[in-house]
Write a structure and sequence with these properties.
Strand order of the largest sheet: 2-1-3-6-14-15-16
Structural class: alpha/beta
CATH topology of the largest domain: Rossmann fold
Shape: globular
Number of helices: 6
CATH class of the largest domain: Alpha Beta
Helix content: 25-40%
Bound molecules: ribose-5-phosphate
Strand content: 25-35%
Radius of gyration: 17 Å
Order of helices and strands: HEHEHEEEHEEHEEEEHEEEEE
Oligomer: single chain
Number of domains: 2
Distance between the termini: 21 Å
Largest sheet: 7 strands, mixed
Length: 246
């Protein structure tokens, strides 16, 4: 079990250092010949950079990667990581991704950066989904600190907004540059404040039952590993079991 230690706000500037530590620790788990998934966000990028450095130093060979967003793909290509395009030809050995909130059962809220749908596709195709976070992301219950992003088609999007409200959320359409934010798929994000979610699995099921609701940021049972860095050092849990960290 991972226990919440500190609220996100109290981490301040040190969060950046912890993100780096978590991301780089995860990159050490990549082995030559692997197909890897590259996550999205300010924590996963540290893993991507370290993987690129290991490739260029000759420490890793035969790596091919798939990105969880256009932004990650651009970054990885710039770093010289060999990339797959839009297909996942076989099971992904290992994916390293960030999260916005992690509960004690290693369930997650993701999608603060809008990449939730591709991230979930890649996570579901991965043998290992390694989540890298600073300690401020730990939460006793999903929804305590973070909004739940819900990706919806533009067609009929207000009906999805009403559905979310009927489930108890305060809903705000995400805005970018004074317009509705668009995901990599051209869809809309409805940021939904549920507060602490008593039954994330039940809520996920209700959301998935609705046409037009393309994805949501609840990642239930998808993380095989969580690597968390904080004042107490780096911890690594693999399927709930504490692992040694170098
Ligand atoms: O859509 C974005 C992703 O789910 C990110 O992995 C998540 O928001 C965490 O991002 P960061 O590491 O920048 O806090």
């Amino acid at each position: 079990m991972i226990e919440s230690k500190k609220p996100m706000a109290s981490l301040g500037d040190t969060a950046h250092r912890f993100k780096q530590q978590a991301g780089e620790q995860a990159a050490s788990l990549v082995q030559s010949g692997m197909v890897i998934g590259l996550g999205t966000g300010s924590t996963a990028i540290f893993a991507t950079r370290r993987v690129a450095a290991r490739i260029h130093s000759g420490d890793l060979s035969g790596i091919v990667a798939i990105a969880t967003s256009r932004a990650s793909e651009t970054a990885a290509r710039c770093l010289g990581i060999p990339m797959l395009t839009d297909d996942i030809p076989r099971e992904i050995d290992l994916t390293i991704d960030g999260a916005d909130e992690v509960d004690p059962a290693m369930n997650l809220i993701k999608g603060g950066g809008g990449a939730l749908l591709r991230e979930k596709i890649v996570a579901q195709a991965s043998r290992r989904e390694i989540i890298v976070v600073d300690a401020g992301k730990l939460s006793p219950r999903l929804g305590t600190h973070w909004l739940l992003p819900v990706e919806v088609l533009e067609f009929g999007w207000r009906s999805q907004l009403r559905l979310l409200e009927s489930l108890g959320a305060i809903v705000t359409p995400r805005i970018a540059d004074d317009n509705l934010y668009r995901t990599d798929q051209g869809n809309i994000i409805l940021d939904s404040r549920f507060g602490p979610i008593p039954d994330p699995t039940g809520l996920a099921g209700k959301l998935e039952a609705h046409a037009g609701l393309v994805g949501h940021g609840l990642f239930i049972g998808l993380a095989s590993d969580v690597i968390v860095a904080g004042e107490a050092g780096i911890r690594h849990l693999h399927r709930g079991v504490e692992q040694a960290v170098d």
